[in-house]
Amino acid sequence: MDPEEWLAQDPDPETVAELRGILASGDEAALADRFGARLEFGTAGLRGELGAGPNRMNRVTVMRAAAGLAARLRQDGGGGVVIGYDARHGSERFALDTAAVVTGAGLSAWLLPRPLPTPVLAFAVRHLGAAAGVMVTASHNPPRDNGYKVYWGDGAQIVPPLDAEISAAIDAVGRVDGLPLGKDWTVLGEEIVEAYLRALSGLPLGDAREVATAYTPLHGVGRDVLLSAFERAGFPAPAVVPEQAEPDPDFPTVAFPNPEEPGAMDLVLGLASDSGADLVIANDPDADRCAVAVPDGPGWRQLTGDEVGGLLAEHVLRHTAGDRLVVTTIVSSSLLAAIAAAHGARSARTLTGFKWIMKAGEGIVYGYEEALGHSVGGVVRDKDGIGAALAVAALAAEAARDGRTLTDLLDDQARRYGLHATAQLSLRVEDLALIPEALARLRAAPPAELAGRAVERFEDLAEGVDGLPPTEGLRLRLAGPARIVVRPSGTERKLKCYLEVVRPADEDPAAARAQAQEDLDALREALSAALALP
Fold this sequence. Notes:
Pfam families: PGM_PMM_I (PF02878), PGM_PMM_II (PF02879), PGM_PMM_III (PF02880), PGM_PMM_IV (PF00408)
Domain Alpha-D-phosphohexomutase C-terminal: 429-505
Cofactor: Mg(2+)
Strand order of the largest sheet: 1-5-4-2-3-6
Oligomer: single chain
Domain Alpha-D-phosphohexomutase alpha/beta/alpha: 39-172, 210-297, 304-417
Keywords: Isomerase, Magnesium, Metal-binding, Phosphoprotein
């Protein structure tokens, strides 16, 4: 599609003005960036920078995606689509465009009543019996981005081959100014939020409630729903960081609105110290992720997603019975399998992403991924930062009632199962071509050792491992034992590396943790040198 054809169909005066300005300036590089490629629809839906052109998130891109989704749904006989959105730039407009296209295609559409967390949308799909769901969000990406996440009727994100089928249907869509647009969608009321909150009341939370929590929604949409969830469950109201309490699409107090990024939790940690909190909780902007920090001497220690995963798995298994399945991914800690075995439960490992976790089998009582995503109790078949926050608060309150802390519980697990220490190495690039080049170099010349540890097995995930579908990435099994997984991020310009070292159960936990940190630091340095990215 050339720029003039794009201008002729674009309904948005802002992107029309942007593109006309680029054309008038003769900026060929800017044109090539916008029109030399297009955002690819995949299992993460769409995600990219806002702006004009097929390689940007904009109203034309969104309307084409909605039309393709509607066409694919009609192949299965139609059905309704529930649509949610966060508070990012353009989110509400993209949601309204989706509703117009879906209803214009002869399908039903329900629109959430206001900007709400992603887990409310994922819950609503099954609650309403919808055939599909759309969440307009870029989650924790920078302010200039937005995204379009698609769920199917089971309430989980789409997986292959459905993503390719929807992508093909999008490719067949003509000009969006020729699409029939409807007006008769249903705007839901607060009853959908009430239904979600009622469902959370059935989580395995135990009966301890006394815990003082400091909380930040990181300028996102999680605050009101989380406060309501805490109140209904009987927990004291968390103290909320005032500077980050209201939704703000510019995320003015953080460099990246991601609780994993350095500095993102500084304000909530300061509030926790000032307010005498026992626990720190942060959601990302669409509240599907949950970060946790606990007191550590005079300061605070942010727990890794794997540490929270191990603690919540044990908590859920203590408070449930029967045939239970707990699930994590191949880049997460290997600890979960040991915990499951000790509690007489089943465990499974999947490819990265909750779309795979929730497809692992029947009887899932808990699933997590190390990137701060948790699903507790099966209420939501996706990451749920609100439900996870409740479960963490319940666990902390239960420990406090017994005169213990979450750190004590981590030490207990180290003594019982060995210390499973994990870390990440994330290498951000401007040129995405650098990522496949780095992986190709590693495939061509796999290292014989890293940081003094022999590489005992080198596995290409693109060939399929452990009975899982092929995926782009590499896994290295090292002596020690230790493990490294290297893969491209599905949503950001990053090469992500996941490291794990395991220390024996008979070691003192503090000494084991210190040694593991040295080992992880050495592996990070050696791996970074081996990847040779600028």
